[in-house]
Amino acid sequence: MPDASATESMLTETRRFAPPADFAAQAHVKSMAEYEKLHARSIAEPEAFWSEVANELHWFKPWDAVLEWNLPDAKWFVGAQTNLCYNCIDRQIDAGLGDKVAIVWEGEAVGPDGPEILRLTYADLLERVSRFANVLKSKGVKKGDVVTIYMGMVPELAVAMLACARIGAVHSIIFGGFSAQAIRDRVEDGKSKLLVTCDGSWRRGKVVPLKANVDEALAMTDRVKDVIVFNRCGVAGTDQAPMVAGRDHDWATLVDGADPTCPAEPMDSEDLLFILYTSGSTGKPKGIMHTTGGYMVHTYMTSKLTFDLKADDPDELYWCTADLGWITGHSYIIYGLLPNRCATLMFEGGPNHPAPDRFWDIVERHKVTKFYTAPTAIRAFMKWGDEHPERHDLSSLKVLGTVGEPINPEAWVWYHETIGGGRCPIVDTWWQTETGGHMLTPLPGATTTTPGSCCRPMLGIDMAVVNSDGEEVPHNTGGILVCRKPWPGMLRGIYGDRERFVETYWSKVPGMYCPADGARIDPDGNFWITGRIDDVIVVAGHNLGTMEVESALVSHPAVAEAAVVGFPHDVKGTGVAAFVITQGELPEPGSDAAEQMKKDLVAHCGKELGPIAKPDQVRLTTALPKTRSGKIMRRLLRDIAAGNEITSDVSTLEDKGIVEKLQEG
Ligand code: PRX
Asked: pLDDT tens across 62-97, in order?
C-alpha cells in the first residue's frame, strides 16, 4: 500500500497548458512572473493595493481608512460613500458611453423569426432602473429595507436588483427553482414586506408557476404587504396567476406611471447590499450578508482579471450561464461586469431547449467572447455528444470559465478542445457565496494551467492549506483550505445569527477564515480542492479526496457521472462507496454484465489512483440525488452506502423516487 504522499503525487495530473503567446501579450497580467510580483505586493501592502483598485471606481466620499479589522469583523473603505448601481450604470453614462450596450438578453422560445432579443444600453438601463426604484419608493421601501425577489431570468430581474441598490434597499433574491416553503422561510428571516415576482418563467417550453408558489408561500406568512408581478408568460390575472386585490400590483402599470429619474443614494461603504441564502443541503439556509464598497471592489477587479475583460474592445461580450438567483449571477452577471463597461449576456432558458446545441447557437449568433459555466453542465454537454458544438462556429470565444465544483480533468480537456478549439485559456474559479468573488483561479494570460486545479490565489487574497493549528502543511499533503487575511468581498455575517457566523467560519482554525473545503498544494504551487472537509475520507489512515476518485471513475468510458462517499468499514475505518451513472444503457441489476462493469471500475480506480482508492462498493444508477441547485446530496449517499435508515432531509430532492433505486443499485 503506498504511503500518503505517494498516493497524492499519483493524483497529480501531469498535463500543462500555457496561455497562448498572442493572448498573453495583450492580457492585463501577461506572465507568471508578473502575477507573482503583483500578488506578493498585494499581500505585503494590502491597503495600498486595494485602494488603487477602488480608485478606478466612483465614490461620493473617499475613505478615512482602507481596512478596520477586528477578527472576524472587517470594515472596508471605512467612512467612504458610494453606490454600486451608480458604478454599474451612471459612471458609464458620465463617461459618454450611454449608447453602449450593457445587457444583451435572449428569451428562451425560438419563433419563426428566431428568439426574442433585447439589447439594453446604459442609458436604457438607467431609465428602467430609475423608474422601478421610484416604484419601490412609492410602495414605502426605504434604505435598509429587505426586498425579496423571486423571478425568472428576465431583464426585469436585473432591473429590480439594481433598483434596490440604487435606493439602498437590501435585496434577497431567491432562485426561481425554489419552492413555496423556501420563499416563506426567506421572507420571514429577512422580515421582508415587499416581494417582486413574475407570473411565471419559461423553462424548456413550459411555464414555471412562480406566482402560484408565491401565493402558497404568502399563505404561510403575513409579513408581505405588497407583491409586484411582472407579466412574462401572459398568465398574470388569469386563473393560473390571479392577482390579489390590494396586495398584488402589475409591474408594467406601476413602471409606466413612474418618474424616469431617481438619483442614486450615497451609501456607506459598509451598508448592507444584499442577503443571499446558501443552498439548503447542509441544514437551515444561511442568509449570507454582503455590504457595498468592498464587494463592489472585489467583484470589479476579479471580473476584469479572471476573464481579462477589455472595456475598449467593442466586440467584448461576456456570458455567464448561471441564474441571477445564485452568487455567481449576482457577482459575475451584473455587479462585477457592468462597472467593467463590458456587455453581459443574460439567457432566459435551459441549455437544451429547443435542442442540445442551444448554448453553442447563442455563442455563434452573438459572438460571445468570454464564457462561464459549471462542470456539471460541461459533463452534460459531453454526454449529449460532440455533434452539437461541432455544428457551430465558436471561434469568437477567448476565455472559458468554470465554477461551483471541482472539474474532472476529462471534462476540462473536452471543454478546452471541443468548445475552446484548443486555443482558449480555462479559468477554474474557486470561491463561495460567502467569499463574494473569486479567491483561487488562473489568470488567463499568465497561468500555466493543469486540468482539475484552480491554480493560484487571486491578487490580494492570502490562501493557504493548513492543519487544525493553522500551520501550513507540506506540498501534496491534504489539509484545510483557509484564507489568512480579510478581503473586501468577504461576508459580513449570517443575517440574524452572529453565533453561527463565528462558529461556522472562524472557529475551526484559530484566526483564519475556514470555508470547509479540503485542499492540497502541488509542488508547482497550484491548489487542488479535494472536496468539502466532510467529504475528505480517511481510508486506512490515508486522506483521499472523494472528488478525485470521482474524476478517476469519470475517466472510464462506461461512466457518465459519479459520486463517492465514505462509509464505516470494519478493517479500514472508512471504506469507499461509488455511485455511478453509466454511459448508455444501465445493465440489469445483478446481471453478469453489471457485476463485470463494477469489477472493471474498481480495477480502473486502482490503476488510476493506487489501491487505496479502490471502491469497496459500486452502485450503478441512472441518476444521482441532487438538490434543485444541482449539488449532490452526499449525506443521503452516505446513509445509503452505510445501509442506514435514511435520516437526511429529502425535501429539496428533485427526484424523490431515486432513493429506492439507489438502495437496490
Ligand atoms: O466546495 C466548494 C465548491 O462550492 C462551494 C461553494 O458553493 P456556493 O457557495 O454554492 O458557491 C458556488 C459558486 C461560487 C465551495 O466551498 N466550489 C466552488 N467552486 C469550486 C468548488 N470546488 C472546486 N472547484 C471550484 N472551482
From this structure: 999 999 999 999 999 999 999 999 999 999 999 999
Specify the residue for cell string 505517494.
6
Please give the full DSSP string across 313-363, using - where no structure is assigned: -TT-EEEE-S-TTSHHHIIIIIITTGGGT-EEEEE-S-TTSSSTTHHHHHH
DSSP 415: I
- Model confidence over 573-628: pLDDT tens digits? 678 999 999 988 888 888 999 999 999 999 998 877 667 789 999 999 988 888 77
Substitution site in 330, 403, 408 for ligand 1 pocket (most atoms within 8 Å of beta carbon)? 403
Mutational pocket test of ligand 1: of 321, 330, 378, 431, the residue with most ligand atoms within 8 Å of the beta carbon: 431
Burial class (CB in 10 A: 0-12, 13-18, 19+), 532: middle
Q: Which residue type sits at 552?
A: A
Identify the band that residue 408 occupies on the pLDDT scale cut at 50, 70 and 90.
Answer: confident
For residue 368, the CA-to-ligand 1 centroid distance in Å is 25
Give the pocket of ligand 1 (CB within 6 Å). 278-279, 327-328, 403-406, 428-433, 454, 515, 517, 529, 532
Kindly report the backbone phi and psi dihedral angles of residue 471, in degrees, each rounded to the nearest multiple of 5, phi listed first. Answer: -90, 140
